[in-house]
Amino acid sequence: MRILVTNDDGVYSDGLWSLAAALNEIGKVSVVAPDRDMSGIGTAMTLLSVLRTEDIQSPIDGVDAIAVQGTPADCVILALESLFEHPFDLCVSGVNHGANLGLDIVSSGTVGAAMQSYLRGVPSIAVSVASLTEVVFDVASLTASVLSKRLLGKDYAETPFINVNLPNGTKQNIKGVRVTRLGPRAYLESVTEAHDGRRTHYWIKHDRMVGADAGKNTDIWAVRNGWISISSIDWGQVDRNQALWLNDMAHLVADELNVDAVSFETMSG
Ligand code: MN
Description:
By secondary structure, this protein is an alpha/beta fold. The chain has six helices and twelve strands. Helices cover about 25% and strands about 30% of the residues.
């Protein structure tokens, strides 16, 4: 099984290599990632200039790694359309440092990368940890590997596209696993204005926490209350078939971590 691993934090980020190491246990991993931090770039792709790539030294035996001077979406497009002779069975993007919840996913490079593989019929997972400091990646990588194993082992009627978010911390900090819907915005932007002596400049920060009213069935509520959130990104209603396989996945992860799972049908609020 061939697994494409990418991210938006850049090819040298710890979360990427934690994920690649975990997935290397279940398939042949190729890493194709931006050569720098591209967080917040969303689904953007480079159409107005050429893209260059560079083979880089992988810290994991048997895993090849390519840095792209482009966006996360560019990385996946190149990987699936040009860089490799063979197709991929799965694409996993992450592990991102910082949450990608609710409608914020439209500006997420982590999700933007996985979108390109999903659009090409490759089962795709985006994985994020909801912290910007002292991020613990191993529970997220373990979760991604449990989900990946399942996706690789089964046929699905529609291409799965899953957004996973975890509260930061060790297994002991995790309350359980919930299948969720994407919530409203989780963060809005603030702007800092300053003067350099001649001109005014601005700094946009994606740091204003909102979504306090997000319902109990949303990813925002789940992660803020200590649960791992598994959402299907299908831009519509989750149908019964999808709910079944999402519930199956939540239970798999919960069994692995020895925590509770909350299924789709039993959720309220
Ligand atoms: Mn990022």
